[in-house]
Amino acid sequence: MAPITFEHLTKRFDQTTAVDDLNIEVADGEFLVLVGPSGCGKTTALRMLAGLEDITSGRIFIGDRVVNNVAPGARDVAMVFQSYALYPHMTVFDNLAFSLRNQKVRKAEIDRRVRQAADVLELGDFLKRKPRQLSGGQRQRVALGRAIVREPKAFLMDEPLSNLDAALRVQTRAEILRLQQRLGTTTIYVTHDQIEAMTMGDRIAVMNTGQLQQLGTPEELYEHPANTFVARFIGSPAMNMLPSSVIGIGGTGQLAGFRPEHVRLGNGHAGSGSLDAAVEVVEYLGDEQLAHLRLGDHEIVVKLPVEPRLHAGEREQFSVPFEKVLLFDEESKQAVGPAA
Ligand code: ATP
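That is the input. Now the predicted structure with adenosine-5'-triphosphate docked in place:
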């Protein structure tokens, strides 16, 4: 186990700056999620940490050692990919044992570590099978097992759940969390999925166009996004963003951001802004309804209790408590602060 530090980490490919002056300190035993849209540089950052990509400038520390020039195999980190990258002709046992045999670990020790990993991952019954005889979820557990047996200083995971169906993703997400809590191994987890980021990360680093947008706990990012990018990237449906004059608060050149769940039906609530809106589409979800509203040129989404039901084509009054509104500078896109 070890802390990991990215210090002014930069990677350029010809004209593209894939990672731009990234500074992150990951604490020993922390589960840090790197999240952002496709192309934001998260995989490149992880690959530089693993030693699979050269560093243009900056430094990476694993513990207190600078690893910029350390060979991948000597960095003592274990990577888990989206493609499980299992050896198809080998049994589960041999897949798990492979890296340890390469390192000339004693047979009894290999046996102990493989059985322990199989036990943690409930793979004990499958040790004699080949990967093709396993489900997708079981294969991903073998891929995790291969990382675990190495007892590395850190786990590096790159979208490990994206090949699984929705139900299995939720289940495996919880398994990875339980595993990480039990082993206490520093983990950096890359995903484009903000729900994975929110549910798994002790802290989340949000990236866009190679640059760190914000680093914080899930609560910090949700409650206090640093800019409009984080505000809209974290949370689903996304935070609504309107010129602040539309709800009658804030100054010129400011945007008012508010989450769909903070809008109420009806106006006249004290300390709230009023919205007169046309209901365009209603999505009924059983326990709540999402209504897509039009206010002149603007569209917003609101999340309301199922009763009273809204219907497309209706015109309704809504209100937003000012204390739930965050103001952003229209030009710089940076957060200005709460509206009230
Ligand atoms: P995704 O989720 O789609 O994998 P990502 O956030 O992981 O995206 P990266 O794969 O890190 O993004 O890519 C960051 C940027 O660097 C992109 O613009 C990409 O096109 C570019 N890039 C990545 N690898 C190379 C390469 N080998 N040569 C040139 N450009 C590259």
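The mean pLDDT is 94.
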